[in-house]
Amino acid sequence: MTNTLILLFHPAYERSRANRALSEAAAGQPGVTIVDMQALYPDGAIDTDAEVARLIAADRIVLQFPVQWYSTPPLLKGWQDAVLTRMFYVAYESEGRLIEGRPLMIAASAGNVPEAYTPAGQNRFPLRELLRPLEATAYRCGLVWQEPFLIYAAHKADAEALQVAGEHYARRLAGMGSQAVRRSEPAPSDA
Ligand SMILES: Cc1cc2nc3c(=O)[nH]c(=O)nc-3n(C[C@H](O)[C@H](O)[C@H](O)COP(=O)(O)O)c2cc1C
Predict the structure, then answer these.
(1) Cα 120 from Cα 13, distance rounded (Å)
(2) Is residue 141 part of a domain?
(3) Residue 19 near ligand 1, beta carbon < 6 Å
(4) Full-model pTM
(5) Mutate which of 67, 70, 125 to test ligand 1's pocket (most atoms within 8 Å of Cβ)?
(6) Tens digit of each residue's pLDDT, the chain (191 residues)
(7) 102 - beta bridge partners?
(8) Does the beta carbon of 18 lie inside 6 Å of ligand 1?
(9) What DSSP string runs through 134-174?
(10) Which of 108, 11, 15 is nearest to 66 (CA)?
(11) What's CA 19's distance to the chain center, in Å?
């Protein structure tokens, strides 16, 4: 069975509603493993041996997180610095090369509404554009960029909206890898 690894980076998962709803929906899917990275590494000291092995064992990789200041939570940047640097700059032949060609999907929740992520809106740029550094990272590492899974107004979403988001997420996970996108294309939800 294809195994899908979701690395969840949430600085305060105990207070999460959106990412919790997504994780719970994903957890019911066949072949899906979710790793709560903040719980595993509360002090930020990442076990790179374990995390490199985890990536090599995964067929598909998902990075799930709440958007914070138009970017990722700090532990995700720490994971890139520790794990991807080792795999792609230090041990490319024995490690990085082994995960090339695998699909990578971002699953991110944003507090603000879609209209805020427009030229006239509060945040000026589409969220997809703000995720470009992750897309560049995927490209650099030979991972196959997937259309990001994004939810907006996350902290205002009611239980029904979160359930719908969870179902949508589960479907995206199931279909992951079937649409390989190397460059971002405008999506209907991001005006
Ligand atoms: C420090 C911090 C920074 C945030 N920055 C943003 C932001 O740049 N854009 C945005 O839309 N929401 C922002 N938010 C809101 C979170 O993205 C939102 O609360 C989260 O996605 C909700 O998911 P959860 O229920 O899983 O915590 C921020 C929240 C915090 C705590």
Answers:
(1) 32
(2) yes
(3) yes
(4) 0.94
(5) 67
(6) 899 999 999 999 999 999 999 999 999 899 999 999 999 999 999 999 999 999 999 999 999 999 999 999 999 999 999 999 999 999 999 999 999 999 999 999 999 999 999 999 999 999 999 999 999 999 999 999 999 999 999 989 999 999 999 999 999 999 998 754 443 343 444 43
(7) none
(8) yes
(9) HHHHHHHTT-EE---EEE-SGGG--HHHHHHHHHHHHHHHH
(10) 108
(11) 11
* 184 part of a folded domain: no
Domain boundaries, position 117: 4-175
Q: For 51, what's the count of Cα atoms within 13 Å in the CB-facing half-sphere?
A: 24
Q: Which residues pair with residue 103 across a beta bridge?
A: 144
Residue 32 lies inside a defined structural domain of this protein:
yes
Domain assignment present for residue 186? The answer is no
| Number of separate domains in the chain | 1
Find all residues with CB under 8 Å of 11, minimum gap 6, and list them: 38, 66, 68, 73, 74, 75
- Ligand 1 contact via 110 beta carbon (within 6 Å): yes
Q: What angle do CA 42, 43, 45 make, to 5 degrees?
A: 110
CATH of the domain at 130: 3.40.50.360
